[in-house]
Amino acid sequence: MHDDIAWEDASGNPTELLQAKLHRKANAGLGDRDTDVWKTLGNWMARSDATDPNGADLALVTTSTAQPGTAAYLLRPAPATRDEPAAARLLLGAAEESTARATEAAREKFRGLSSAARTTLLVKVRVLDGAVQPQDIDAAVRGALALGLPQGELAQSRFVAEVRRWWDGVAVDMLAGRRPALEVGQLQAFLQDLRNGFGPDSLRTTIQLEDVAEEDVLQYDDALFVSQMKLVSYPLDNLRRAVIDYHRAVTQETQWLGESLLELHELRRFEETLRDEWARAFTDMLDELAGGVDEYDSNTVEEVTKIKAGKLLLRRLLGSTAVTVREHYTDPFFARGKRHELANREQGGIGWHPDFVSRLQALVATA
Fold it and tell me: Based on CB atoms within 10 Å of each CB, which residue in 74, 117, 284, 305 is the most buried?
């Protein structure tokens, strides 16, 4: 292929070819004698279907802006100014007058075409000028989304980042053929759902499962919360999932706090509510192990019974959705991960095994 980007049909035949040019200067590269113009035309004229009216559409995408009086200006898609025959005359004049060695081959090729062939070629060409500079993309997206942005600079930055992340996924799905098109209503629904996640009663999950790498999981092999789950013989597959929940929750919490999307006092209240929920359930477990009559005595209960009771407590609380950090934020991974974070604390932490305090003290003493 001679082009930077090619759009193909189901049979692999190109339907549109794009050349992409980046310039720091707003009006660079689009003059009738400029190298970018002639190199682009040279690439297109090297194709066997260059002068075939049914051949692939051709586009020059550039950050520069075409100036009035140039062929590039006449080849923009604007109906009011588009004029292929006039553009052909300008380019022919430039081809005959220029002496630049870098464009000589392309200019000679263009001069060798018939007048009709030159016009046929240019009918298929669109100059898509004035593309946004890479460093200005965020500002352009913000401008387009201005009416729906949340309050606060950091929140707006996160909002735009989430829009771009979602858009990247949509683009990849379309390129891979998994999504045939994107309707305006689908975009509006996504933006509304995203905006709801920035409300005072909600949050937005930005740390996804695919964001957790294998090295993130392996770093917690010796963590206290992992030892806590091993004390109650938690299944290895679910233990790995628990580690992922923990990592996502800690990373997500750090991001929310850093971007002022969550206040520290909210997080502390959430932790205390989780701790109170656990304390009630843990006390009930000990009461059941004691037969509901006497106080729990570790020496009178078999280890296998303790393990079963602790595993049941762990499963019940990890499955609980009663406690949320905000009323309308219901993604369950965060509460699961925070329970593990509380179980990872040496002082004032929670646990699952009836004797977790003494067991952890023994582990720390022998570490």
Answer: 74
